[in-house]
Every structure is written in C-alpha cells, then in structure tokens.
Task: structure prediction
Amino acid sequence: MLALAFFGSVAFAPGLAPLQRAQVQRPAVFMAEEVKPVVIGLAADSGCGKSTFMRRMTGIFGGESKLLDIGRETNTLVSDMTTVICLDDYHKYDRTGRKENDITALHKDCQLWDKMAEDVTNLKNGVAVSKPIYNHITGELDPNETVEPTPIVIFEGLHPMHDERVNKALDLTIYLDITDNVKFAWKAQRDIAERGATMEEVQKAIDDRKPDFAAYVEPQKSKADIIIQVLMSELVNDPTGKVLKVKYIQKKSVGVCEIPYLFDQGSKIEWTPNGEKLSVKEGGVVFKSYDDEWFGEAVSVIEMDGAVDVLDELVYVESAICNSGTKNYGELTEQMVKNADAPGSENGTGLFQTLASFKIREAYESITKSK
Result:
C-alpha cells in the first residue's frame, strides 16, 4: 500500500432498550394537513436491535417516542414527525394458530401480504389506514387500530422487503445483519441470565428458526440500500458480544443520501485513533473505510472494531467521518451521548445506527425537496 498521509495511525492509498410503554396522541397538525410520507423499511430478525435503532432514529427528528394512544395494547410507536409500524401486526395467525399449523412467524405463509401492501401504499399516498394488531403479551390478534400518515413512516420487522409491492413503496431500506455467533451471544446473555435457559436451549431456539430465516428474512439483505453488519471482534475475544466488529455498508446506487467515508473518498483507509484523544476498552479500536461489492453491487464500507470508554470523545471520530448527514459539528456525538444507556453505545452498533439515522433524515429532506 502506498501511504499518502497519516492521521494518528491512519494510512490510506488512492483508489464497511426497551421502549417506553407510555402512550401519546398524534399531534393535531399532522391530522389537519395533507401528508405524503417518506417511507422507510427496516428488516432484521427478532432480538437484533430494531427497537434500539428506532429510539435513536426518532430522537434525531425531535420529540419523545411513545406508543400511539388507542386506550389498549399497540405496537405502533409515534413521535412528532414519525410513525413506526411493527410488521408483526401483519401475522396471519395468532400464537395458538401458529402452533396448530406448525408454522413460524418468519414463514412467508404466516403474513398478510395483501393487507401489508395496501397499508404501505395508502400511507405513502397520505391516506389513513385501519391496520391489524398482534398482541405480544397475549399472543392474540386484537381489533384494528387507525394510523394516520406522518412525514416519515417506518415499516420495521421481519419482512419489509420480501413482497415486491411493499418493497417498491419504500424510499430507503436498511437491513441489520447480525451474524450467527453474535446472535447466539446476545440471546445467551438475555435468556440464560433473565430466563434461566441453558446453552443447549438457546442454541436450539436459534436453530429452529434458521430454515425460515434463511428462506424468507435473510435474502432481504441483498435488496437493502444500507446494511449494518455485526460480527465478533477480531481485536479481543469477548463472548458477551459487547466488543464487536461492525460494518456500515451503503450501496453506491442510493440516490437519496450521500455515501459516508473516512477522510478521503475512494481511498482505502485503516485508522488507529490517537489514544490521547479517544479512550478505548481493552484491545483498542480500529476503523477502516474502503470500496467493496455486496451481492454484485458496488458499495462503500466503514468498519469499527472495538469499543470506546468515553462517548464524549467520539467527536474526534466524528471529525473523520465525511458525508455523515449531520447539520453541525458534534451532532452525531451529541446523539450518542443522549442515548448512552442504549445497548451498543460503546461499539459500532450504536455509532452506525446513529449514522444510518442521519441518512434517513437526509433521505427525507432530499425526497421532500424534490417533491
């Protein structure tokens, strides 16, 4: 590699929490005005951080994120500008029905595709919908709720990109790609510590889902515009999954938001930050930035391997990220500090979820300006 410049120890050459259960009524301004939402799709397996991601994202648009006030159980999360719809609500069968039909929630035949396509199309056109509710507490299918269009509507869950009618309506798509060993580490930490499960039971629960996950959920990662891939760290052996190697991958074909990179676009970067400017956990932190291919498509990648100790010091890392989508210096760090207690804040999952959130805002502003 021909080194052209150094920043700390960087070399490059020319050339990847639980949400509040309080409820809120939709601000009247969005009911009174015609709204043509920008629609986002977020896909991932269960227990892979979608809820934490949504809290980070809605915080960037301002206002507190709470459940829609319908006087009963709901999964629909709202803030001043956003509505987050959980695709579990489009299950065809309740918990008992899935057991009787010997089908998992991941299977394509367990989803109400026509209703999902109808609702995403109507909301995109500014039309309120009467959507179903899957009650996670009782496992039953509850009566429908009314959801009004808002400037940003996010469909999050197992299958936002599976049905082509739904996928076509999405303005930006994101996939959380949690690799098997990380998924096991996260599930083991939760189920063994909180539910008294054994290692064998954790592995069986994952293995039982694998066939349907591989058939109907995982293929969406080839369709997504942005992928956040989470792997075990190469710097330190951490079986808890708190120190990780995370990649932010964005397709170069995405037209609604710019591609982020470190220091110099098109260059191959490996950067070890100055230890006097960034306090890190054992094993250190290494960042990389480079071009690559993802299922045959050209992408740009930023990597973070390791974990930091002091979130305020991330402003040093933020200064190295170009095209981040922030509006002022330090905004990314400010959001990281604001969500300091959220899972993954010390590693690349939090950093890149926040980066992707700014890309959602950038896409919203780009699309609404063009309209």
Remarks:
- The chain has a mean pLDDT of 88.
